[in-house]
Design brief:
This protein is mostly beta strands. Among the domains are: 2-124 and 259-310, no CATH class; 174-207 and 329-399, no CATH class. Helices cover 9% and strands 38% of the residues. It has five helices and 23 strands. The chain has helices at 2-11, 260-272, 275-278, 363-370, 392-395, and strands spanning 34-41, 48-53, 63-64, 69-74, 79-84, 90-92, 103-109, 115-118, 121-122, 131-136, 146-153, 161-173, 180-188, 193-200, 207-213, 218-221, 229-238, 249-258, 291-293, 301-317, 349-353, 378-383, 386-390. The strands form four sheets. The protein has a 15-stranded mixed β-sheet that branches. Strand 5 (79-84) and strand 6 form a beta hairpin. Helix 1 packs across helix 2.
Length: 411
């Protein structure tokens, strides 16, 4: 949820203006405001609260609110204390979960002694994700693109307001791989001559996994519908040519059931982040949450203490499952020519001859340069002093991803 509160902190200043003139991209006015990112769920875990401050438009680093005292209490007499971790977030000292028919209150005391208190909030109704699936769109402006869709039937629950987050993971397999590195030794005169040795790799650099999380607000409501049913809600759209689905793709979606106050708060944040509304005459202005200063009712606080039930569902799919052609690898790795002076050669994939060591075709110098740590090219194949080498992106997936195999991953 960091993106939500960064958006609020970043755009709050612009909402202080009411004009149609061009706004310079620097801070004209600044108000130091506490930003609270707090949601507890019905998951048994160590819950988390994040505190920060608003920052100048020209700054890029989030300002963490350090050394605060954070406590959540319930109306059953339970108290949950939080401790700040090395990343600046406040984590509950013990694992707990929100339970129905219980009121929870968030209390914050900053290092400067300022106190903040939320309204008492109860857990929202529980709702399940019935179906999460991918299908190829058949029309519109993006035919043949992939849509990840969600269904949820809430006819037997009181759940009506929903927010969604997703985390996606995709598998990467580099197109040109060798189990050996080509290493330089016995260097003479800064690379005039050297030995080349094939050395077995000590780690997998062929298969990697990249994980990204959603950074936008996805919401829906059934409040105005005849049936309390969510049908074909679009969670994610993926271009049919996106390398995300070149090998294997997985997405896990979390469904948060909100109360009306939380739903409207996030809805207004989303509206504030829209460029058209952001610079219009009718600014949304300051968004009021359910947290206030104890001793100063006029002090502004950005944030909402949400107590939400959450469920999740994960799916996997390959491009073959959707009858689509395999997308291209994200980098151009195909070999074209070994003539370095020719314009159409591909620097990602080179054929170099150690014996050529002069003039415009000094392949030996090129070998020395590209195999250095600064360039990190990878050995693909070679015979009789002629070597095929590829850029790190084409022969080592750890150059831009992680070779840690996720525990949840299914082949």
């Amino acid at each position: 949820m960091k993106i939500i509160y960064n958006l609020l902190a970043f755009t709050f200043f612009l909402s202080c203006f009411n004009c149609t003139d061009e706004i310079p991209l620097d801070t004209q006015s600044f108000e130091d405001i506490l930003v609270v990112e707090a949601i507890i769920t019905n998951e048994l875990k160590r819950q988390e609260v994040k505190l920060s401050r608003t920052y100048f438009l020209e700054d890029s680093n989030q300002i963490i609110e350090d050394n605060a005292t954070v406590v959540i209490t319930d109306n059953q007499g339970n108290t949950y204390n939080f401790t700040q971790n090395s990343e600046g977030a406040y984590i509950s000292n013990v694992a707990f979960k929100a339970i129905p028919n219980t009121g929870y209150t968030l209390s914050i005391t900053t290092s400067k002694g300022k106190q903040y208190l939320s309204l008492q909030t109860e857990l929202s109704p529980v709702s399940q994700i019935d179906d999460l699936y991918a299908e190829v769109s058949s029309g519109g402006t993006s035919p043949n693109n992939i849509q990840v869709l969600l269904n949820s039937n809430n006819e037997t629950t009181n759940a009506q307001y929903f927010r969604y987050e997703f985390t996606e993971t995709h598998k990467i397999v580099v197109p040109y791989y060798s189990w050996y590195n080509l290493e330089i030794s016995n260097i003479i005169d800064d690379g005039i001559a050297f030995d080349l040795n094939l050395v077995p790799k000590l780690e997998n650099q062929r298969i990697c996994f990249t994980t990204n999380s959603s950074n936008n607000i996805i919401q829906t409501s059934t409040n105005a519908l005849n049936q309390n049913i969510i049908n074909k809600l679009q969670i994610r759209t993926i271009d049919k040519d996106d390398p995300l689905i070149r090998e294997r793709y997985s997405i896990i979606v979390k469904q948060y059931v909100q109360n009306p106050g939380a739903y409207n708060f996030y809805k207004k944040i989303n509206e504030l982040g829209n460029n058209e509304s952001l610079l219009s005459q009718n600014q949304p202005g300051y968004i009021i949450g359910n947290i206030s200063a104890v001793n100063n009712e006029k002090e502004r606080i950005i944030g909402y203490f949400d107590v939400s039930s959450v469920t999740s569902k994960r799916i996997y799919f390959n491009f073959q499952d959707l009858n689509l052609p395999q997308p291209k690898y994200p980098y151009d790795c195909d070999y074209r020519t070994d003539e370095l002076e020719i314009a159409n050669y591909n620097k990602n994939h080179l054929k170099l001859n150690y014996a050529l060591n002069g003039g415009n075709r000094n392949h030996r110098a090129q070998l020395y340069k590209f195999l250095s740590p600064d360039w990190g090219y990878k050995y693909k194949s070679g015979i009789a002093g002629i070597y095929f080498i590829v850029s790190p992106e084409c022969g080592d997936c750890t150059s831009y991803s992680s070779n840690i195999h996720p525990d949840f991953w299914e082949a």
